[in-house]
Amino acid sequence: MAAVEHSAEEILLAFAAAVRSAGVKVTADRARNFVDAVGRLGLGRRATVFWAGRATLCASPDDLPTYQRTFEAWFAVEHSSATRVSPSATSVSAASLDDDGGLEGGRNQQMALASRRERLRHRDVATLNDTERALLHRMFEELPVRLPTRQTRRKRADRHSDVDRVRTLRDQLRRGGEPGPLRRARAPRKSRRVVWLIDVSGSMAPYADSLLRLAHRVVEAAPLQVEVFTLGTRLTRVTGALRVPDAEKALALAGRAVPDWSGGTRLGEVLRAFNDRWGQRVVARGAVVVIASDGWERGDPALLGRQVERLHHLARRIVWSNPHRGKVGYEPIQQGIKAVLPHVDYFIGGHSMQSFKELLDVLANA
């Protein structure tokens, strides 16, 4: 057996890169699903890894022959650098699987990593140390993002859709009343605008970084359909900063743009500024608005309630994400939260990777 120089996760991701280089369209999400699948099924047998990769990395029957060849080359018992498919994966020097031994030295590492990641998925991000936070940051790349959609008014011809009575009637009028073929059409769907309003005041400081990373992930999926603002003692638009593809650079730019990070909060006044300057124009109209805040208002709670009600009339849906929602003993008894709850459509958590995933699920279906 060849010596193993890298972790099992690195080897599996390198194999996914090799499959992509061979011509299969392997996305980052598919590669991560492959690693997760192997982690759950175990590395005990070569066939297990093969079928896990076949199920997660291949998107069509045309991919199967390429995948088969790549797998046999990559996981050959007598593996050498000369047999590797992808030049991008040459940093991994050994990836030997056999039928009875599994991936040598990698099983324990892979299972430990999978277990660690699963535990981390449910941890409160405010309690993580630097190492755990670094791993969590990489996990943001795995979050599936789907934007809410709306049906467009203009229809397109589609022979598999319902009969378009208007087009069919017009066609028959052009024929002088003679019957003709039925015209079929459908109204395609397009992404609905999403607006993020993230509280960066002192009480939200342990969560603000993760929430901005989450917003960056959504901006990355649809740069022109997503707007991001921070709330504190003032309103700051950070959409441009979060359009930078690299998450670390994007957050650094956003951090420099926000003058009131970890400061006080005047949610009512800042939301009024948003409604006056952005909401009544085009940004919030028909959009799904996500407000990430604990609702601890130092100003007038009644003003906060009125501004959220005003925003509710403009937006399609309002999703309020509170990091304390769902924790043991939490009750929405603060004056700010009590004022806004009648005007929000979804009141959900936002303190862990699992709750972030649930937030994205709600967003996709809002």
What does this structure look like?
By secondary structure, the protein is α/β, with parallel strands linked by helices. It is 45% helix and 10% strand. The chain has helices spanning 8-21, 28-41, 46-57, 63-74, 107-121, 130-139, 165-174, 205-221, 239-242, 247-257, 267-279, 301-314, 335-340, 353-365, and strands at 149-151, 156-157, 185-186, 189-191, 194-199, 226-231, 235-237, 288-292, 317-321, 346-348. The strands form 3 sheets. The protein has a 6-stranded mixed β-sheet with strand order 7-6-5-8-9-10. The protein has a two-stranded antiparallel sheet with strand order 1-4. Helix 12 links the parallel strand 8 and strand 9. Helix 2 (28-41) packs across helix 5 (107-121). The longest helix is centred in the middle third of the chain and has 17 residues, at 205-221. The N and C termini lie far apart (53 Å). The relative contact order is 0.10.
List the helices and strands and how they pair.
Layout: H1 8-21, H2 28-41, H3 46-57, H4 63-74, H5 107-121, H6 130-139, E1 149-151, E2 156-157, H7 165-174, E3 185-186, E4 189-191, E5 194-199, H8 205-221, E6 226-231, E7 235-237, H9 239-242, H10 247-257, H11 267-279, E8 288-292, H12 301-314, E9 317-321, H13 335-340, E10 346-348, H14 353-365
Parallel strand pairs: 5-6, 5-8, 8-9, 9-10
Antiparallel strand pairs: 1-4, 2-3, 6-7
Helix pairs in contact: 1-2, 2-3, 2-5, 3-4, 11-12
